[in-house]
Give the backbone structure.
Amino acid sequence: MKICLAGVNNQMGQKPVKILEPQDFIQYEQRLRLMKVAIVGASGAVGQEFLRVLDEQNFPISELLLFGSKRSAGTTYTFRGKEITVKELQHNDDFKGVDIAFTSAGAGTSKEFAETITKHGAIMIDNSSAFRMDEDVPLVVPEVNGEDAFNTPRNIIANPNCTTIQMVVALKPLNDISKIKRVHVATYQAASGAGAVAMDELVEQYKEIAEGKEPTVNKFAYQLAYNLIPHIDVFQDNDYTKEEMKMFHETRKIMHEPEISVSATCVRVPVLRAHSEAIWIETEQPITPEQAREAFNKAEGVVLVDNPAEKEYPMPLFVANQDPVYVGRIRKDLANENGLTFWLVGDQIKKGAALNAVQIAQYMIKHKK
Ligand code: NAP
């Protein structure tokens, strides 16, 4: 049995020395300080992924608290062999002593509870769109702008939109070769992007159709089984959807490139998990496919799968549950002298949500000032 003594010293002051249990023993080189962590929205698609990712990443946790609405309060989930009961999120002092709160319960809940969550010093890493474009809230993808995570006047860090996270991880190494001026992107977004219930609805629709029944349609505007829906989030005055405009605005903020223009068409596809994107970029100087492959090969968080002769390219079926963003089908854009086109796939519940949020926390631990 391995036992070590860990001196725990957080923002709120010195905590008593803790004797670690065997199950929460962590490697010395990873971190001595254990943290009190909360997940808000634990029962959801992203919340459930947080439980898996925190464990997979061996995140240094002394205590894990789970929160939800009345609906899931009282449900128990197992984390590192321990049963934890979901508490109802309320305006009280439940977040006292919490170091990091990972929130994924929708923008309305994040806005309503931000003060309750952060008032005792917890850093809230929020998956919703509530604060992403606020000037005093950093919007962070560690491979691109990890340092921004240290500028948190409101104790809030926003996790970007899933399609944007996946895209900027791939744009960064190309932008380092030559500045990107324009991006055209078509997304192919999995049902689970709309939450756990939406994923269940797609599975159910295929069953119902096979049984000759009328498919149940609740979460999407139309039947998704055997269909594509070019409509994600609400339409804006310029006829783009909010999802498409998130890609426009968030890319500029994360990459610190206010001139990049992103024109997106976001499409819901009958895939359970992992979003795909067809991307065309225009750069100041042309980037050859060979240069791009070399850059992707070296880039953090990217895996290159680009061997058309052997039918090797990324696909959501094989990328689901994986950490990196997979890139392939790299070609010169035949319609643009300075253009390059490629295809990428990432698990949007992992890198597009829970994993990116946990990586933000890891970045802050590793680079603590
Ligand atoms: P989901 O599966 O529908 O889960 C929603 C979660 O929010 C549930 O755990 C629910 O708890 C909780 N919740 C709702 N209202 C609440 C309240 N008033 N108080 C406390 N908890 C409340 O949705 P999801 O896909 O996980 O998405 C959650 C957030 O992450 C959204 O903001 C979404 O935009 C964002 N996001 C999702 C993805 C994705 O791929 N799914 C990717 C990136 C970002 P109960 O079960 O108790 O109601």
User: Anything to note?
Assistant: The CA atoms of residues 323 and 350 lie 6 Å apart. The first helix runs from residue 45 to 56.
